[in-house]
Specification:
80% helix; mainly alpha; 255 residues; 0% strand
Length: 255
Protein backbone atom coordinates (compact mmCIF):
# COMPACT_ATOMS: atom_id res chain seq x y z
CA UNK A 1 0.00 0.00 0.00
CA UNK A 2 1.13 3.64 -0.36
CA UNK A 3 3.30 5.07 2.39
CA UNK A 4 0.64 7.45 3.65
CA UNK A 5 -1.90 4.62 3.82
CA UNK A 6 0.50 2.44 5.79
CA UNK A 7 1.10 5.26 8.23
CA UNK A 8 -2.63 5.82 8.70
CA UNK A 9 -3.28 2.10 9.21
CA UNK A 10 -0.54 1.61 11.81
CA UNK A 11 -1.25 4.82 13.69
CA UNK A 12 -5.04 4.40 13.41
CA UNK A 13 -4.94 0.90 14.91
CA UNK A 14 -2.83 2.07 17.85
CA UNK A 15 -4.95 5.17 18.48
CA UNK A 16 -8.21 3.22 18.24
CA UNK A 17 -6.91 0.55 20.61
CA UNK A 18 -5.81 3.20 23.09
CA UNK A 19 -9.15 5.00 23.04
CA UNK A 20 -11.07 1.76 23.52
CA UNK A 21 -8.74 0.83 26.37
CA UNK A 22 -9.26 4.19 28.07
CA UNK A 23 -13.06 3.92 27.84
CA UNK A 24 -13.10 0.34 29.13
CA UNK A 25 -10.57 0.91 31.89
CA UNK A 26 -12.15 4.01 33.47
CA UNK A 27 -14.92 2.08 35.32
CA UNK A 28 -12.40 -0.54 36.46
CA UNK A 29 -9.72 1.81 37.77
CA UNK A 30 -11.54 2.54 41.06
CA UNK A 31 -12.33 -1.15 41.54
CA UNK A 32 -8.70 -2.14 41.04
CA UNK A 33 -6.95 0.66 42.92
CA UNK A 34 -9.76 1.99 45.10
CA UNK A 35 -10.24 5.67 45.93
CA UNK A 36 -6.56 6.08 46.76
CA UNK A 37 -5.45 9.69 46.12
CA UNK A 38 -1.92 8.61 45.18
CA UNK A 39 -2.79 5.97 42.60
CA UNK A 40 -1.66 8.20 39.72
CA UNK A 41 1.72 8.69 41.39
CA UNK A 42 2.15 4.92 41.59
CA UNK A 43 1.31 4.44 37.92
CA UNK A 44 3.52 7.40 36.98
CA UNK A 45 6.47 5.76 38.70
CA UNK A 46 5.98 2.48 36.86
CA UNK A 47 5.28 4.21 33.52
CA UNK A 48 8.35 6.42 33.90
CA UNK A 49 10.69 3.50 34.51
CA UNK A 50 9.17 1.40 31.75
CA UNK A 51 8.96 4.37 29.38
CA UNK A 52 12.65 5.14 29.76
CA UNK A 53 13.73 1.64 28.80
CA UNK A 54 11.14 1.45 26.03
CA UNK A 55 12.22 4.82 24.66
CA UNK A 56 15.83 3.64 24.61
CA UNK A 57 14.77 0.51 22.75
CA UNK A 58 12.85 2.50 20.12
CA UNK A 59 15.71 4.97 19.72
CA UNK A 60 18.36 2.31 19.29
CA UNK A 61 16.26 0.34 16.81
CA UNK A 62 15.45 3.49 14.83
CA UNK A 63 19.15 4.41 14.65
CA UNK A 64 20.05 0.87 13.58
CA UNK A 65 17.34 1.01 10.92
CA UNK A 66 18.64 4.31 9.57
CA UNK A 67 22.19 2.95 9.48
CA UNK A 68 20.93 -0.07 7.53
CA UNK A 69 19.11 2.25 5.11
CA UNK A 70 22.25 4.37 4.62
CA UNK A 71 24.33 1.23 4.07
CA UNK A 72 21.86 0.08 1.41
CA UNK A 73 22.25 3.43 -0.39
CA UNK A 74 26.03 3.04 -0.19
CA UNK A 75 26.12 -0.47 -1.67
CA UNK A 76 23.85 0.66 -4.53
CA UNK A 77 26.23 3.52 -5.29
CA UNK A 78 29.23 1.17 -5.13
CA UNK A 79 27.66 -1.30 -7.56
CA UNK A 80 26.72 1.46 -10.00
CA UNK A 81 30.25 2.92 -9.84
CA UNK A 82 31.81 -0.51 -10.47
CA UNK A 83 29.42 -1.05 -13.36
CA UNK A 84 30.36 2.28 -14.96
CA UNK A 85 34.09 1.57 -14.63
CA UNK A 86 33.62 -1.91 -16.11
CA UNK A 87 31.73 -0.47 -19.07
CA UNK A 88 34.55 1.99 -19.81
CA UNK A 89 37.15 -0.77 -19.65
CA UNK A 90 35.35 -3.10 -22.06
CA UNK A 91 34.94 -0.13 -24.40
CA UNK A 92 38.70 -0.43 -25.11
CA UNK A 93 38.31 -4.01 -26.43
CA UNK A 94 38.53 -4.69 -30.16
CA UNK A 95 35.45 -5.48 -32.19
CA UNK A 96 33.33 -7.61 -32.12
CA UNK A 97 34.03 -8.31 -28.41
CA UNK A 98 33.57 -4.66 -27.53
CA UNK A 99 30.00 -4.49 -28.77
CA UNK A 100 29.07 -7.85 -27.24
CA UNK A 101 30.41 -6.99 -23.78
CA UNK A 102 28.97 -3.49 -23.81
CA UNK A 103 25.56 -4.83 -24.82
CA UNK A 104 25.62 -7.30 -21.93
CA UNK A 105 26.23 -4.48 -19.47
CA UNK A 106 23.54 -2.33 -21.08
CA UNK A 107 21.08 -5.23 -20.80
CA UNK A 108 22.00 -5.70 -17.14
CA UNK A 109 21.49 -2.03 -16.30
CA UNK A 110 18.19 -1.95 -18.17
CA UNK A 111 17.08 -5.05 -16.25
CA UNK A 112 17.97 -3.42 -12.92
CA UNK A 113 15.98 -0.27 -13.73
CA UNK A 114 12.91 -1.76 -15.40
CA UNK A 115 12.56 -5.21 -13.81
CA UNK A 116 14.58 -5.66 -10.62
CA UNK A 117 13.89 -2.35 -8.90
CA UNK A 118 10.09 -2.36 -9.36
CA UNK A 119 10.04 -5.96 -8.13
CA UNK A 120 12.09 -5.07 -5.05
CA UNK A 121 9.67 -2.27 -4.22
CA UNK A 122 6.85 -4.81 -4.33
CA UNK A 123 8.76 -7.14 -1.99
CA UNK A 124 9.82 -9.68 -4.64
CA UNK A 125 13.36 -10.92 -5.27
CA UNK A 126 14.02 -11.15 -9.03
CA UNK A 127 16.97 -13.19 -10.27
CA UNK A 128 17.01 -12.28 -13.95
CA UNK A 129 20.13 -10.16 -13.53
CA UNK A 130 22.17 -13.22 -12.55
CA UNK A 131 21.70 -14.78 -15.98
CA UNK A 132 22.91 -11.60 -17.69
CA UNK A 133 25.98 -11.38 -15.43
CA UNK A 134 26.77 -15.03 -16.16
CA UNK A 135 26.48 -14.36 -19.89
CA UNK A 136 28.83 -11.40 -19.61
CA UNK A 137 31.34 -13.51 -17.68
CA UNK A 138 31.29 -16.20 -20.37
CA UNK A 139 31.85 -13.63 -23.11
CA UNK A 140 34.64 -11.95 -21.12
CA UNK A 141 36.55 -15.16 -20.34
CA UNK A 142 36.21 -16.39 -23.91
CA UNK A 143 38.29 -13.45 -25.17
CA UNK A 144 41.87 -14.35 -26.17
CA UNK A 145 44.10 -11.26 -26.02
CA UNK A 146 46.07 -10.97 -29.28
CA UNK A 147 48.75 -8.65 -27.86
CA UNK A 148 50.54 -7.99 -24.58
CA UNK A 149 48.73 -4.69 -24.15
CA UNK A 150 45.39 -6.39 -24.72
CA UNK A 151 46.36 -8.99 -22.12
CA UNK A 152 47.08 -6.32 -19.52
CA UNK A 153 43.72 -4.69 -20.25
CA UNK A 154 41.99 -8.07 -20.09
CA UNK A 155 43.43 -8.86 -16.65
CA UNK A 156 42.42 -5.44 -15.34
CA UNK A 157 38.91 -5.95 -16.73
CA UNK A 158 38.62 -9.34 -15.02
CA UNK A 159 39.65 -7.75 -11.71
CA UNK A 160 37.08 -5.00 -12.22
CA UNK A 161 34.42 -7.58 -13.00
CA UNK A 162 35.24 -9.37 -9.73
CA UNK A 163 34.80 -6.06 -7.88
CA UNK A 164 31.50 -5.43 -9.63
CA UNK A 165 30.25 -8.92 -8.81
CA UNK A 166 31.21 -8.45 -5.16
CA UNK A 167 29.37 -5.11 -4.96
CA UNK A 168 26.37 -6.68 -6.64
CA UNK A 169 26.26 -9.49 -4.07
CA UNK A 170 26.46 -6.94 -1.26
CA UNK A 171 23.47 -5.14 -2.73
CA UNK A 172 21.50 -8.38 -3.04
CA UNK A 173 22.35 -9.24 0.56
CA UNK A 174 21.15 -5.81 1.70
CA UNK A 175 17.70 -6.48 0.20
CA UNK A 176 17.12 -9.36 2.63
CA UNK A 177 18.31 -7.70 5.84
CA UNK A 178 15.64 -6.98 8.43
CA UNK A 179 15.03 -6.58 12.14
CA UNK A 180 14.88 -9.95 13.97
CA UNK A 181 11.32 -11.05 14.82
CA UNK A 182 12.12 -11.27 18.54
CA UNK A 183 12.96 -7.55 18.48
CA UNK A 184 9.61 -6.78 16.88
CA UNK A 185 7.89 -8.76 19.64
CA UNK A 186 9.72 -6.65 22.22
CA UNK A 187 8.64 -3.43 20.46
CA UNK A 188 4.99 -4.49 20.30
CA UNK A 189 4.92 -5.83 23.86
CA UNK A 190 6.57 -2.68 25.24
CA UNK A 191 4.10 -0.46 23.41
CA UNK A 192 1.11 -2.42 24.69
CA UNK A 193 2.38 -2.29 28.28
CA UNK A 194 2.94 1.47 28.15
CA UNK A 195 -0.52 2.10 26.69
CA UNK A 196 -2.15 -0.14 29.29
CA UNK A 197 -0.45 1.82 32.07
CA UNK A 198 -1.72 5.02 30.49
CA UNK A 199 -5.26 3.64 30.49
CA UNK A 200 -4.99 3.00 34.23
CA UNK A 201 -4.63 6.68 35.07
CA UNK A 202 -7.44 8.28 37.00
CA UNK A 203 -8.42 11.44 35.12
CA UNK A 204 -11.58 13.28 36.02
CA UNK A 205 -12.20 14.43 32.45
CA UNK A 206 -12.86 11.69 29.92
CA UNK A 207 -11.96 13.99 27.05
CA UNK A 208 -8.62 14.91 28.62
CA UNK A 209 -7.84 11.23 29.18
CA UNK A 210 -8.65 10.37 25.56
CA UNK A 211 -6.65 13.35 24.29
CA UNK A 212 -3.54 12.44 26.26
CA UNK A 213 -3.82 8.78 25.31
CA UNK A 214 -4.40 9.62 21.66
CA UNK A 215 -1.38 11.90 21.47
CA UNK A 216 0.89 9.27 22.99
CA UNK A 217 -0.57 6.65 20.65
CA UNK A 218 0.11 8.86 17.60
CA UNK A 219 3.73 9.33 18.68
CA UNK A 220 4.13 5.61 19.31
CA UNK A 221 2.55 4.75 15.95
CA UNK A 222 4.85 7.20 14.17
CA UNK A 223 7.94 5.63 15.70
CA UNK A 224 6.83 2.09 14.86
CA UNK A 225 5.98 3.17 11.30
CA UNK A 226 9.41 4.77 10.94
CA UNK A 227 11.16 1.63 12.13
CA UNK A 228 9.04 -0.58 9.85
CA UNK A 229 9.83 1.65 6.85
CA UNK A 230 13.58 1.66 7.49
CA UNK A 231 13.50 -2.09 8.11
CA UNK A 232 12.92 -2.74 4.39
CA UNK A 233 15.12 -0.19 2.54
CA UNK A 234 14.17 -1.49 -0.93
CA UNK A 235 10.40 -1.70 -0.43
CA UNK A 236 7.65 0.88 -0.74
CA UNK A 237 7.60 4.50 -1.85
CA UNK A 238 10.40 5.50 0.53
CA UNK A 239 12.80 2.84 -0.74
CA UNK A 240 16.39 3.38 -1.86
CA UNK A 241 16.46 5.25 -5.15
CA UNK A 242 18.12 3.66 -8.24
CA UNK A 243 19.48 7.06 -9.31
CA UNK A 244 23.14 5.88 -9.39
CA UNK A 245 22.20 3.27 -12.01
CA UNK A 246 20.21 5.86 -13.95
CA UNK A 247 23.25 8.16 -14.10
CA UNK A 248 25.44 5.34 -15.39
CA UNK A 249 22.79 4.32 -17.91
CA UNK A 250 22.46 7.84 -19.32
CA UNK A 251 25.86 9.47 -18.78
CA UNK A 252 28.22 6.52 -19.30
CA UNK A 253 26.28 4.22 -21.60
CA UNK A 254 24.58 7.01 -23.49
CA UNK A 255 21.07 5.54 -23.28
Amino acid sequence: MPTWAGYLVITGIIVAGTCVGVLLARPLVLKIFGPEPGQNELITMVLTVGGIFYGLLLGLVAVAGYESYSEAESVVADEAASLGTLYREVSAYPEPQRQVLRQDLIDYTDNVLTVAWPALRRGDEPNGGTAIVTRFQEHLLAFDPPTTAAGILHRATIEQFAQFDQDRRHRISATTQQIPPVLWWAIVAGGVINLVLLCLYSVSSRFAHLLLGGLLAVFLGTMIFLIATLDYPFRGDLSVDPQPFERVYHNVMGR
